[in-house]
Fold this protein.
Amino acid sequence: MSTVANTIFSPELAARFDHLVTIYPLSRSALVPMLLYAQDEVGYVSDAVVTEIAQRLDLLELDVRNVLSYYSMLRTKPAGKYNVQVCTNISCMLRGGYEILDHCKHKLGIGHKETTSDGVFSLEEVECIGACCWAPAIQINYDFHEDLTPEKVDVLFKMYRDGQGKDVK
Amino acid sequence: MPTLVSHPDEVRVLSRRFGQGAANIDKYIELDGYKAVQKAIAEGPEKMSAWIIDTMKASGLRGRGGAGFPTGMKWSFVPKQSVKPKYVLVNGDESEPGTCKDHVIFLEDPHAVIEGTMIAGLAIGSKLGFIYLRGEYRYLLKIVEKAVAEAYAKGFLGKNIFGSGIDFDVITQTGAGAYEVGEESALMESLEGKRGVPRIKPPFPAVVGLYGGPTVINNAETIAAAPPILLMGGEAYAKLGSERNGGTRLFGISGHVERPGVYELPMGYSLRKAIYDVAGGIKDGKKLKAVVPGGASCPVMTADEIDVGLDFDQMAKAGTMLGSGGIVVLDETVSIVEFALRTIAFYQHESCGWCIPCREGTDWIKKTLTRVYNGGGSKKDVDNVQYLAENMLGRTFCPLGDAAAMPTIAFVKKFRKEFEDYIEGNKAGTPIITVEQLVGAGH
């Protein structure tokens, strides 16, 4: 596997990928992490991302797209800078998950898988995120926020809008 | 950050280091960390593998992912000699609704998972372990990655671990959102860079697993139990639990309770006490209606069925499953029609479509229950739902079909009158989901 010339990724991510493809018994094992890490940087899995990852793993673009379409976190269109993912599965549902979802829709003025016109927030209803004992819970990008109320959501949105939110990558 | 909870009835084996900063390797070492793997190595190259497996067998530890398969026996199935490399695979794709125990382990005690992976590796003669976390757990992946880096920096991982002459490496891996990947063969597909569709069995992973090599795959909690078991001895661990159900496990109690949280209780502990004592009883003084005892896939229990011990055998005898230990508590305000619909909506969303009974069954059950929920149902719909679910059972490659069918059957069987009353316009419970929310739903 040779390092790709004219990479679309940042030097850091390109170097990370150069390394990632070498650590597994089969390089293809790097595919799912690479798609997700590329999405973290680019914002979504663009055609260019597919092309370069296919090249890096010596796969057909079709192989990459086949895998890409399976995983719910991978998207082929841009989302907001902060993707708000509201869990409405059973434990969250019982403790107000739908109320939180409705509040987010109202507050942001968008629906499921939509993005605010300023591009700051997008909204997604998601299945169980593994925070059942601290329900209702949401994830904003990769950050968990638990034991929520509509008021706490307002505070969070303001924090993120003001650039004060955490942003784990 | 998850809130840590405690209760006097807890027996802290796995959670002993929670809240003490043990994600840091020095703290972990101070609290008996990496002693178990050294104890195993001290048995010497001839006896080590047999000693680990015998101790695990004696411990009565059964798989904490949900299936409850005896861990020591699973490890013993891996062939001693193999042309292909052998692998240890840690399943941290925790996705069963109601389950968040591995979340706390990765957060509070990631080195226990790493040490457990090494022990499993020594037991089966593997040189490489993988720790696979669901994609949503990025902040936990960072914690585990840092822990792995610390273990390499101390020389605990890599070449010649603890002077044993044995090399052992650990690779961390992220998923990217898929419930089904929690199934062991689907997880191996995902780790090989493919769609997470299940493989047909046999062959089982112990013979043909990851990259075609013999593979031990265990839930993260199962793996994290290995170090304390080796330190305290198999018999001592077994004694903590009930008959044929050794030790303790992490129970995540969620839903309508006063003190939801992840508690470590002995196997066989009373479900009633877990709800009313440990988790503080039903929220706001309401009455208990039902319990989903081990994650969304487990058949629901009614309020008068909860005098049962929380272990694999007693729960099976009670007609349900211990599952993942995620106990979801429903108070009297819950509409079972709505809850059943939300449950099947999840499985319909997650069905990969590989097997027709699951793909079509989950879809038709969801459609039928949606019609019932929207007030257009007939009594025949209830029969149809049960018929569809019963015809999914055992007819799919992986357990997702069963996971969708089992709770559905229990909902319509145990709460049949509520479904019928609902259809006749006499709706029990307070609705949570609106029709608009269903139509515009993300699931």
